[in-house]
Design a protein that fits this description.
single chain; alpha+beta; 5-stranded antiparallel sheet; 3-stranded antiparallel sheet; 25 helices
Length: 757
């Protein structure tokens, strides 16, 4: 049962319903995107670039108020708020830590975390830099935006030297269905040139079918008879020919942030992006006609849509976009009427409706219908006319879109407000105060001058050392201005408004209490990272299906073939993004690190703190996740490196060379001591070379028993034993004795024995 109504009983799209829903996708804020943009960037009618008001020479009633050249300042309050919040969200994303979901110690969880970190900081890094900023900007400016996770595949053409000898060699091992089996013979026979041309074209098709993914085979360039004939003649004459072969030039994931009401729209009532989303595109006539073959567009629909070339919708009032086109121009009040207005650009508006629906067999799927809002049927036909209609790929049963919302005060996604909508009145108040302060300062520093009419017509001059002839009692004088206490009131109001804005949006200001700032930042960051986590969940799902197994093994350390063996287990790779907003305060982080090192670690008498993990966390807090990832070894690797160091020192001593003793601040001394004992005692050659003193130091009470077991095989090496004893004493003092002495000095008792009675 298809309860949404998006599909008809025969499985075709319900185009009138989709068009009707699309026509209602207008901004919920009065004035639409134009109004939001104007508030953010301080734009209003009659504005001049010098920040002053000017009389209009063309309008007799266009006198500037309160006077010509009065202040008309642009207070970028809203823009500053958006940029600060955007910077916080962006910094939180790049400092976020990938963590496992579910069984943290499972094999797949470790692979998922490693893969996610590699995708963010390597594979998708350059692409994400822009998309993270755009997503944060759209979310704060409009109130919401959509993320579109995709697996992007593109074809390219490469020049290839096709040699007759290679064709002959390949024909020997070619499968029976390959055209290669007879191609060489046909090429060499001039009388069979036409057949050779057809065979070469057949081989090209066979090559594309076997070498390219199925979803790209429809976009393969066609080989003409002239191209194939030229290649056949070159092969016959010279033994080789230069041709172009298609290949997959791009096969990777990507996430795009879609601008609301410009690149993507949603009905104002929907509560979940998993129901229906509309994408908007502007394409040229040449591009649209090219899609008839490249993307299987309906030729009749293309011809009908071209009749509306240069006519774009104005029911979505937005500004002029850059890049992927969206609705342009239009009224300043949202309208549900599907009207079209002439635009300078001769592009055609194309709408993609992506929605969830169930077919006649009640099988739920996601569909994409490409249409034009003003093209409903062909001339003389009553059937719905659309460009194409097909099932789209989903990730884990989710539509390939994730909504980022700034707030949720109702179920509707589009109800989330942007900063311009929330702070425009305060920005207007700030503008009024600043204009008043500037105008008052201007008129009080240089008040108007009262000048009496001169009987001789002489005009009074104003300026230093200027001489004027005046009559007594009729001298010019400054106009008396009101008292100046209003200036102080304006400054006080401005301060209060600024403090109110700082607290409302939890800005980084001394006026904002730390708990308020932290809780607000935590709320904003959690919402932002939760949306990106959902998007990367789909990316990991897509990677599990389309990713390269060799690349996966190299990135994650998984055994070769692991990804191929688990492609049919969906949802196996899952990871999340997590971040502590306190890390944004570098001074606080350093205080926390100092407190941990000076208080907790010295009192960790039972060794419950993982020192290696703590070292990783300190490095990450100081250097950030990207740099720390480059310089910090994983814990198993660090342990192996330390064990290798101990093995190297033992080899040096066995050869008679002095070891490199550790200094009194080396934190690895205790581990080196343990590894040294393990390596020496597990090697019979080293054990047989120890003197009685060295054997006793190393083995303790078991030394005599070990000596008896080795018997005549013992060949004590005085030099090796002497160096080993010094090495053990050095490690014992630095890694054990010195640490215990520091603990006794702090707590007053030996942590191993406790207080004596």
């Amino acid at each position: 049962m298809n309860d949404t109504g998006y599909l008809r009983a025969d499985g075709s799209p319900n185009l009138p319903l989709l068009t009707q829903i699309f026509s209602r996708c207008s901004p919920t804020v009065p004035g639409g995107m134009d109004w939001l943009d104007n508030v953010r960037f301080c734009r209003w009618p009659g504005q001049f670039n010098d920040g002053k008001k000017h009389d209009s020479s063309s309008d007799p009633a266009g006198a500037a108020k309160p006077w010509d050249h009065a202040s008309d300042v642009r207070p970028f309050v809203v823009d500053d708020l958006i940029n600060e919040r955007k910077a916080t969200l962006s910094a939180a994303f790049w400092k976020a830590m990938a963590s496992s979901v579910g069984a943290a110690d499972s094999e797949s969880s470790g692979y998922a975390v490693a893969l996610l970190e590699w995708l963010i900081f390597t594979k998708m890094f350059s692409h994400l830099i822009d998309e993270i900023d755009l997503a944060a900007d759209y979310q704060e400016h409009v109130g919401w935006c959509l993320l579109a996770p995709r697996w992007k595949r593109e074809l390219g053409l490469k020049r290839y030297k096709l040699k007759l000898a290679d064709i002959a060699q390949a024909a020997q091992g070619a499968p029976p269905d390959s055209p290669l089996s007879t191609l060489t013979t046909l090429i060499l026979d001039p009388t069979q040139e036409t057949a050779a041309v057809e065979a070469l074209k057949a081989w090209y098709g066979w090559y594309c079918n076997h070498e390219l993914p199925p979803d790209l085979q429809g976009k393969v360039p066609t080989v003409t008879d002239a191209q194939a004939r030229r290649a056949v003649q070159e092969l016959r004459a010279e033994g080789e020919a230069t041709t172009a072969l298609p290949f997959v030039c791009r096969n990777e994931p990507e996430i795009h942030a879609l601008k609301p009401y410009t690149e993507a729209v949603i009905p104002p009532e929907i509560t979940n992006e998993n129901e229906i989303v509309f994408l908007i595109e502007r394409v040229s006539e040449a591009e649209l006609r090219g899609r008839i073959r490249g993307e299987d567009y309906n030729p009749a629909w293309v011809e009908a849509a071209l009749k509306f070339k240069g006519k774009w919708s104005n029911s979505l009032p937005v500004g002029n976009p850059v890049g992927p086109q969206g609705f342009l121009g239009g009224s300043t009040q949202p309208s549900a009427a599907p009207e079209l207005t002439n635009q300078a650009d001769g592009a055609v508006e194309v709408v993609y409706a992506i929605y969830r629906a169930a077919d006649a067999d009640d099988i739920p799927s996601f569909y994409c219908t490409v249409f034009h809002r003003s093209v409903t049927s062909a001339t003389g036909s009553t059937a719905d006319l659309f460009a194409c209609h097909d099932v789209v790929e989903s990730a884990g049963g989710q539509m390939p879109y994730v909504a980022l919302t700034r707030e949720r005060w109702s179920r509707s996604l589009a109800s989330s407000r942007g900063v311009p909508e929330m702070a425009h009145t305060q920005q207007n108040l700030v503008k009024g105060i600043l204009d008043g302060i500037i105008d008052r300062q201007s008129i009080t520093l240089l008040p108007p001058v009262n000048v009496y009419e001169s009987p001789t017509g002489t005009k009074y001059k104003f300026g230093p050392a200027t001489q004027n002839y005046v009559r007594q009692g009729k001298e010019p004088g400054f106009m008396q201005m009101p008292a100046g206490q209003g200036m102080a009131d304006s400054v006080e109001v401005y301060t209060l408004v600024s403090q109110n804005l700082d607290n409302r949006f939890a800005c980084m200001s001394p006026n904002v209490p730390a708990p308020r700032q932290q809780t607000n930042q935590e709320h904003a960051v959690r919402r932002f990272l939760a949306g990106w986590t959902k998007a990367f969940k789909q990316i990991l799902w897509l990677y599990q299906e389309h990713g390269d197994d060799a690349e996966f093994a190299l990135v994650t350390g998984a055994p070769p073939g692991w990804l191929d063996q688990n492609r049919d287990t969906p949802g196996l790779l899952v990871a999340a993004l997590d971040f502590d907003v306190r890390e944004l305060d570098s001074e606080l982080m350093m205080k926390r690190i100092e407190a941990m090192n000076s208080i907790v670690l010295p009192n960790d008498v039972l060794g419950i703190i993982n020192r290696g993990q703590w070292a990783q966390e300190m490095t990450r807090a100081i250097l950030g996740p990207a740099m720390s990832k480059r310089i910090v070894q994983q814990l198993p690797d660090a342990t192996a490196a330390l064990r290798e160091k101990a093995r190297g020192e033992i080899l040096q001593m066995f050869a008679g060379n002095t070891p490199t003793f550790v200094d009194d601040k080396d934190p690895t001394a205790a581990s080196l001591l343990q590894f040294t004992k393990e390596i020496v005692t597990s090697n019979p050659v080293y054990m047989s070379a120890l003197t009685d003193e060295a054997l006793t130091t190393l083995a303790g009470p078991q030394a005599q028993q070990l000596a008896q077991q080795m018997g005549q095989n013992r060949k004590p090496n005085e030099r090796f034993s002497e160096l080993l004893l010094k090495w053990l004493q050095n490690l014992q003092f630095v890694g054990v004795t010195q640490v215990q002495n520091k603990q006794i000095g702090r707590i007053g008792v030996d942590p191993q024995t406790g207080p004596t009675t």
